Amino acid sequence: MKLFNYVILKNKLMLDLHKCIAKRYCHFLILLLVFLIIPVFAFSKERNDTLKFVHLTDVHLILNPISYDSSFVQRRFGKSFPNAQPFVKFLNSHPMAKKTDFVVVTGDMIDFYEAESTEGGLMGNQIELFHKIMNYETNSVVYLVLGNHDIASYPKNRYHQNHANIAKLTWVKNLPVFHQGTYYSRIYNVGSTVYRLIFLDNAYLSVRTHKEQAAFIIDRPQLDWLQAQLDESSDDKEIIFMHIPLPTSDNQDEKKGNPSLSYDDYVNKTNTQDFLDVLKETNNASVQLIVAGHIHRNDLFDFNFSEDFSFKQIITGAFRDNIDNWRLFQLTESDIMISIPDSTGQTTKISLK
């Protein structure tokens, strides 16, 4: 509205200028017009010295549950299924969410794309219902990535992702954040530092490779796009968001990340290695961290492959399990600070490379 009024005022002054050539106040109008042509925000825009966002994941909403087979709903959730109210309330009224620039949800926004209905056969309207929530019940800026449940089908007593492509097209059609595709990036300037936020799609879950601890699939077109994103600038700092985390080594200490993790630990896990190759080949050590979900617990792991190739992976617990499962990220010119809402008040600080 301000821009609209500004344009109207400028156009009016241009008309008045033509009329005032022989009048004394002509010089005044010329000076005023010059100042208006210079964008107002050049004077008023404050330097953004901190970018704040909240990360949450694995919401697992089931919307309009009475339309689905009751035994399936009971089996999935017991007597209490996750409705949308806590999620919407968090976005609209949680003090921390309101103070941040945006919210990131790394997948499993809904529990399934389609499932067995009360009338038999698969019914899929969860994405459309989720769109209505995001469009009409909240005005928060929310970035999304797809999780395996967001494209999952649940016929009776089964699970598959055979309709994953249709599910993804439905997400693209309904959610504006996906209108350019299911993977995308955003750039933010924080002081003199440029952050490139990269949102990937690794929602497809291979059951076979999952048993080998490598349920991590990013196809070649997406890897080529990621390579182009990382190569676009040698100065920006990247944060990668995805649903399924980078699998840890078989020799990992479950309670503490292995600081001497070997790159060769992944040599037989093709999809994971292809992803790591892209990160490694950028040669600018610009990827600061990976932010993920999927495993329904809080975790932090240091990937130290070499002196020139290292990053952290941050995993947040499921919002479905506890509405206090979220993290606050604060990005500054020189570091990234990450905190969780627990009694310890512990903050992880990552100095930029």
Structure description:
With 353 residues, the protein is α/β, with parallel strands linked by helices. The chain has two domains: 40 residues, no CATH class; 306 residues, Metallo-dependent phosphatases (Purple Acid Phosphatase, chain A, domain 2, 4-Layer Sandwich), CATH 3.60.21.10. 30% of the residues lie in helices and 22% in strands. It is built from eleven helices and 15 strands. Strand 13 and strand 14 form a beta hairpin. The longest helix is centred in the first third of the chain and has 18 residues. InterPro entries: Calcineurin-like_PHP (IPR004843), Metallo-depent_PP-like (IPR029052), STPP_CPPED1 (IPR051918). One of its GO terms (molecular function) is hydrolase activity. It holds the Pfam family Metallophos.
